[in-house]
Structure formats: C-alpha cells, structure tokens
C-alpha cells in the first residue's frame, strides 16, 4: 500500500467536532487506497496551558520535566483521533513517541530527530491497521526520557515520518488553504499558488509567512518529501492546497513567485566605523551574545577606497526586529565603552519594514532587481537598504509604505495571473 | 535509606498551590531521612474531563485508547510535582508507568499489577535522587501499551510500590484526616481512630466509607504494608491520621471499632420460592449477568422443615443498591417467564438503609449482636434483615431511622471515648 502522512495542527483538532472533521479526511484517504500515518498536535490552547503551569511552578525549569508535562497534550489528541476513526470503522491505533519509537537527541525541549525505526508501525500495518495516529512534537531520548522537538515540532515530526516511511506525500492540514503570492489581507489580487519550490518556501517561511515551519521545509527539501499545505476547513480534493516540491516538478515558473513582508523591523547604522580587519566580528559578536537576530547587513565601501581621506572609516548598517532594538543599542554602546569598536554616531530608525520578492526564476532571469526598484520608484518609495540572495531581493523602506509597496510589486510581477 | 511511599489524591494536587503544599510534606519526610516515592493522581476534575471526551467520541470505546488518553492527567501532575520539589532543592524526577516500568496484565481500564522491577528507581536513588514522583493509576501491558488500573487505582499503585520497595509505611494523603468511628456529619461524637486493623478497614471500605479503596486495603493486608491515612490540608506530625495495620500492632482493641452505613439500599423478597437444589444459583446467576451488585442474602428455612406443608417453599430476600432495582426486577421476572424459577410474589422495598458495626474484637466477645439489637429496640427501630460476618453485623432498617440508628449504636458501644 502507498503510505500517506497527514498532519493536523492545533486549530484543526481544537475540539471533538474538529477531530471528527479531520478524521473524515483521513477516512477519505484510506478509501483512496492509502495506509495513513496521522500526526496530531495538541488541541489548541492545551500546550499553552501546560507551558503556563510549568513556568509558574519553576521559572528555571528542568527541561526533562517540561517535556514530560508538555507532551501530554498530543497524547490526548492521538487517543481521541484513534477512537474517532474506530467509530468510523477505520482500523486505527494511537502511538506515543516512545512507542514508535521516535528516537531523538537528549536536547530536551529542542531535541533533534535521530531516527524512526519502521518495524513496530509496519508490523501493525501488516496486521490490518489502516491508520497510525502518532502524537506529534515528541520523542524518546537515549536515556529513555520523553523529549520534545520545540514548539511547532509537529510539522517536523510529519516530514520525518514521511521520509522514514517513503510516503507518497506529506499533507499539512492547517487553517489556511495554501501558500499565496502575498498576504490576501493586503491585496485581494493575491493568488493561491498550486506549487512552490522548497527553496522559495524556505525564503517565505523565514520572511514571516507562517504557513510552515522553516525547519520542516528544510527537512522536506533534504529528503525530497513532497509537502502539501491545505485547509482542514474546506472540502479537500487531490488538487487542494499548495504543493511544496522540488523545482523539477514545477513546469512553468514565473520569475517571481511571491511578495513577502515583515512589518516590525528596525535599521541601525554605525556611522564612521573604523575600517579594519575584524571590525565586523567586533560588532556582531556582542550582538549575537545579546540574542539579537540580525537580519540584513550592509557595509558601504570605505572612504579611503575612493578618497584621500586620512582615516579609514565606513558606515555599517544592519536590521533586526523592532523589539530587539534596545538590546542591540546596549550591546553596541557597551562594546564602544570597552573600546572594542569605535564610531562617530549611532543612528536608529524604528519605522521601517522589509519587503522581499522571492522566486527561483531569478536565477535565470536578469533585470528582476531593476524591475523591483522601478516599481517602487513609480510610487515614490525610497529604498533604504538592499540585500539580495540567489532567489530573493529584500529592501527596507518606510513602514507607512508597506501595503503600497506590496501591491505595487504584486502588480509589477503580474502575480495575480497564473501564466 | 528507609523508603517512604506518599500518595496524594486529586484534591490534594488540584492546583499549583496545592501541589506546592503537598511538596512541602514530601520535603519534610526527606529531611527526616527518607528516600521517598510519591504517587500522584490527576488534578481533580482532569480525569473526568478526559473520560468525558472519550465517552463522547466513542461510547463503546477501545479500552486501549481510553487508557492512553485518561492516563495523561497523572503524567502532568507527576512532572509538575517533580518541578516543584526541584524548586525546593529536593532532587526529584518524574516517572510515567512505562518508565518504571510498572508491569500489568493486558486487562485495559482494569489492569492488575504483575510486578514492579526496582532496578531503574533504585539506580536513581543510588545516584542521589531523593524523590521519585510516579504517575499513579497506570502501567505497561505485555504488548507495550499503556494500561490503567481503574478509577481510584492510585491508592493501589501506592500500596504496590510500598510492597515492592519494602517501604516503612505508605502514607495516603487525602481530604479527610483519618478514619472515624462513624461519619462525623451524623454525630459530633465521632472520634478519629489512631489505629485500625486491615480487616476492619476492609469491612468499612466495602460498607461505603470512602477513605480507602477496598482493593488497596486488600493488597496492603496481603503484603503487610502499613498504611496511614491523613489529611493534605493539616500540619502533619508522625502521629497524624489513622494507621491501618496488622491487628498485632493494635494494643487495646474495643469490641466494636466503628459504625458504618449505606443510605441507598433496596430489599427484594421472592415469596414462596420453590425450595430445591440449585434454586439460589437460578436466582442469583441472572442477577449477576445483569450486573446487579447483590449484597446481603437471607434465606429462611423451608416450610417443609417444620410443618407438614405439601410444597417445599421458602422466602428468599436480598439487598442491592437502590439504583439497580429496576435491573434486578427485570432479571428476576425474565427468569420466571423462562420458567427458570418460580415464586408467588415479588416484594420490593426501596426505603431501606444498611447499618453495620465492625470490630475485630467481636471474635473474642460474645453478646455484640444482642447489644446492637437492644440499642435499636430502645429506639423502636425495627430490624428487617440481619447478616453477620466474623467481624461485622449488618442490619437493614427503614431509611428514615438511619441517623438515629448510627447515633444510638455509637453511644451503645461507647465509641466516643478512647478507652
């Protein structure tokens, strides 16, 4: 029998009615001829309740106990889903992480999956079980204790099962019906993509499109697991949702697949930094130590390179999430006070946002950046920082132009049409 | 190190404050020099919530899935209790049933404990762990699935651990501060017993005193585990609560230790039953099949024994819980319709209650029954059925006299005084 992995997130199993709705989708796939592995999250809200109790009990908690407590939510859903399927005459049983076993490292609360031996589940499929309902997000450490994979680890569990069981596909059921060219709340022209390449999905995920966890997409890309994102709350057909797949599976590909944005960004510039070897490390080391997620980094050429300037100085600009600005400033001023770095001025701009266009087609098409910049210029939007990767161009602009910029770029790259 | 087992029921761990309160009691015992095994129930209400979900999902549920779901509540408490102890600098860790492992039969939802290998927990005690917090009420089947011991199985878990680890004592923390001579709500003269024999506790438990589960007392008696019942909500001293122990540990013993009652009883009489071999089986077989818990059974002598009566007939009376009367009547009438039994009349009395006096001292003292009947007669209370065991005398009387009878018997056997 071909194997299908289906994953249902917290909102998809939030109560008994929704569990029944999800089970109907599982039954439909069994009737299509699949042996199914279902990965379930905790009923929405449950994990937060458990985490709240742990934090209240012990602010500096023992992560092993945290994992033992927090993993309970998924166990409950797995049992209830299995019972629901049995009520529909679908032979099903639940599996907790240690029963599979899903073997992980000992890094409690952030464990990595080591392996998933197929034997136990394969044996039950052989005995007539049609659905294995697996509690997501959890595993077993070499010491025999329960581990969790970190928040959102259920997506990763699903992809890992799909890889281990050579599944035909891994369907991620969630509360949106696919991946869009951009946020439909910003432009009604946003269009659902039928397919998107792993690399594009990765860029979109890291840019804040919350459909899939970055880690699960990375894992899917590595093991070439075909991922499908679709809604629990709509009728599913074999073509529902968006398929995240290898780019070879994508026949026609536009230059740009989507426009992403990140609203709460900040831009920090160190003016007239002394330009010497090691200066970047001297700046970004303390920022990393302070837990600042530095995103874009731009260093202009040094003045000595083009002028007869007596001192070798340059301007260094970086961006980070807005709520980390205070920490970033402190780390930089401390480093200056300790004479680790020198600069003349610290300029902070907390009113910026980031707009990105993403597409694997960029690799083979020139002029994408020029087209992007022209579209922004046509709206009189000033670009403050530019950063590019092989399949992405990101810019920082004033936050007030965010929606306008997304709409202009969506139009400029003709994303509302499929051809 | 001597080992102590401490068990906390649902109301004793109902929220984080109560878990902290319970943990304080555990710490006090560690400071007294014990290695402690703590058995925890689910936070009160949690198990009912889980059972409710299972029943709503699947009325004829797969008991294996029921167990997987319902055992989650204890796992949560075990982790939270362990974290709370760690916050108090007490080295503790949580253990789920499968981690110990507590090995059981495969009778899901009503599994029996087979064995508790000591190795894993002993090893951790050897490494400096002072408290093993074990999720009660659950175990592992030979098939590697989670079992539960049935409702209230946490008491049984505690006694089984005390037996397996040769514990000095098994302390059952609950919401009452011990075992009383009778229900203090019925007479303010009720007195807490310092000690009570296993056999007496068994009779009281089966008579509806809800302090301890019958099954856990049986297990304690078999393995001579000294059980102490005490309150989570009072300061504990080494002499708190009531010690349930072997009668050899009880120095002075009254003839009667306590007066128990059961309010909702019914009395059913089959008049003029044909008296032939096998008639009892023909009556009580169908009742057992119908799930009726028959308690007292009284058969009067047959009329042919004392009279020249042409037919051999007798009257057969039994008692059962009031809410099982309809089922009992149906079973009997069905058996009559099928010609399995014959009788002239079925008399049902649903307005009775059962009063019992219990005491190991009865074995060596004559006249206890006479004293009981005299006390009831003095209050003009008519006795409808009498049944006796070696250490117990039970009577059925009209329900309206229940409180009066308890008070009269408590006085008659001078239970308010200790000597």
Automatic annotation (TrEMBL), chains A, B:
Gene3D superfamilies, sorted: Acetylglutamate kinase-like, VC0802-like
Residues at which substrate binds: 47, 74
Residue intervals of the ACT domain: 268-360
InterPro entries, A to Z: AceGlu_kinase-like_sf, ACT-like_dom_sf, ACT_Aspartokinase, ACT_dom, AKii-LysC-BS, Asp/Glu/Uridylate_kinase, Asp_kin_monofn, Asp_kinase
UniProt GO MF annotations: aspartate kinase activity; ATP binding
Record key words, sorted: Amino-acid biosynthesis, ATP-binding, Kinase, Lysine biosynthesis, Nucleotide-binding, Transferase
Region forming the signal peptide: none
Family of this protein: Belongs to the aspartokinase family.
Protein's recorded name: Aspartokinase
């Amino acid at each position: 029998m071909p194997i299908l992995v289906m994953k249902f997130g917290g909102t998809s199993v939030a109560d008994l009615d929704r569990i029944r709705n999800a089970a109907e989708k599982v039954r439909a796939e069994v009737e299509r001829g699949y042996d199914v592995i279902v990965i379930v999250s905790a009923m929405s809200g449950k994990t937060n309740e458990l985490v709240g109790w742990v934090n209240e009990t012990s602010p500096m908690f023992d992560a092993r106990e945290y994992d033992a407590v927090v993993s309970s939510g998924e166990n409950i859903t797995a049992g209830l889903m299995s019972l629901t399927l049995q009520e529909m005459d679908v032979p099903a049983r639940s599996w907790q992480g240690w029963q599979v076993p899903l073997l992980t490292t000992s890094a409690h609360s952030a464990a990595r999956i080591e392996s998933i031996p197929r034997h136990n589940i394969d044996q039950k499929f052989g005995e007539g079980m049609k659905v294995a309902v697996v509690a997501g997000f959890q595993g077993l450490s070499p010491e025999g204790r329960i581990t969790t994979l970190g928040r959102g680890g259920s997506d990763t569990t699903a992809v890992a099962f799909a890889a281990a069981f050579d599944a035909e596909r891994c369907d991620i059921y969630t509360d949106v019906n696919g991946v869009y060219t951009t946020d439909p709340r910003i432009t009604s022209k946003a269009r659902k993509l039928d397919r998107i390449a792993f690399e594009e999905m990765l860029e979109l995920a890291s840019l804040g499109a919350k459909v899939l966890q970055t880690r699960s997409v990375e894992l899917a890309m590595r093991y070439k697991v075909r991922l499908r994102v679709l809604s629990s709350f709509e009728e599913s057909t074999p073509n529902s949702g968006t398929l995240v797949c290898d780019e070879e599976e994508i026949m026609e590909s536009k230059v740009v697949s989507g426009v992403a944005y990140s609203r709460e960004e900040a831009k920090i510039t160190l003016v007239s930094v002394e330009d010497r070897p090691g200066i970047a490390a001297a700046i970004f080391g303390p920022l990393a130590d302070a837990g600042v997620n530095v995103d874009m980094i731009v260093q202009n050429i040094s003045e000595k390179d083009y002028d007869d300037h007596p001192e070798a100085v340059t301007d260094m600009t970086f961006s980070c999430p807005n709520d980390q600005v205070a920490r970033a400033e402190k780390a930089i001023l401390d480093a200056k006070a300790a004479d680790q770095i020198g600069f003349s001025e610290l300029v902070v701009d907390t009113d910026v946002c980031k707009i990105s266009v993403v597409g694997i087609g960029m690799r083979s098409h020139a002029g994408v950046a020029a087209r992007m910049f022209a579209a922004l210029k046509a709206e009189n939007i000033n670009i403050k920082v530019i950063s590019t990767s092989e399949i992405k161009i990101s810019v920082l602009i004033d936050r007030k132009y965010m929606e306008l910029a997304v709409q202009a770029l969506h139009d400029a790259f003709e994303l509302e049409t499929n051809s």
